């Protein structure tokens, strides 16, 4: 069973602190929605409010069309997967899986059968007799997910489930979680501080800051058309470069301030004299010989990963540049930078809004 989740005008107060501010959000049935933002943005508070672990101060929460705003957690029929796994250390994997069924009065044989079926789905069949201390981090996370699946909830709520794992295992587990979501046809809400997780796993991404939804939409829409400077800088890795700029006197160029002013022909109209912030992603910059390039900059740092080379310029502000392969550049070198004006993002310098 899966369900749509609706939040309308949801607020959460902790005394004078306003943690969630007029949240309106539709999480479609069967979708994988990621809540993302910096620490303290309200994403975990929002998830806990869906689960009933935090009360909603004002507003309405509906799950599968039913108002759940004041309904206790056990009656909401949602399952939460925690960062800490929250497994019972004195119980075997099978006992951890069947615990919620047993306290509901499910016959022992039926509960064991359900555990065996879920274990096949999550690859735990050979581990049912083990204790949590005998499992790896990834295996513990699969047990935590299996314990949620066995309940057949209306929605799965994930609270940063991969943050305790090493980098390689996180990559593996995010593919497992997404594949499991697709097999179950579930409604999943996933909180993470890692925008790579959000971009690669989710159908729908919700970017939050200071208790407010800044932007929501498909991952690549947020990457291609961020509504403001905050979203532009948060989505994408390495982060977008931001350069103070002003509209050129000819109405078609942009004067960039990189310690010294450099003019770039945009090929489209921009208000003369308007103060702007130019955003340019590191992967959208190409290195070229200085003569004839759009920008001429000195190199401060060169970092090679083998597959790619990361350059940082000795400018103010500094620019990050990513090029495929081994570029062969060195600190102190003067290089040229080219980019397509179509890939330049312009934001109003006062409001930070996209223009």
UniProtKB/TrEMBL annotation:
GO terms for molecular function: ABC-type transporter activity; ATP binding; ATP hydrolysis activity. It is a peripheral membrane protein. InterPro entries: AAA+_ATPase, ABC_transporter-like_ATP-bd, ABC_transporter-like_CS, ABC_transpr_MalK/UgpC-like, Mo/tungstate-bd_C_term_dom, NA-bd_OB-fold, OB_MalK-like, P-loop_NTPase. This is Glycerol-3-phosphate ABC transporter ATP-binding protein. It holds the Pfam family OB_MalK. Gene3D superfamilies: 2.40.50.100, Nucleic acid-binding proteins (2.40.50.140), P-loop containing nucleotide triphosphate hydrolases (3.40.50.300). It comes from Labrys okinawensis. Coiled coil: none annotated.
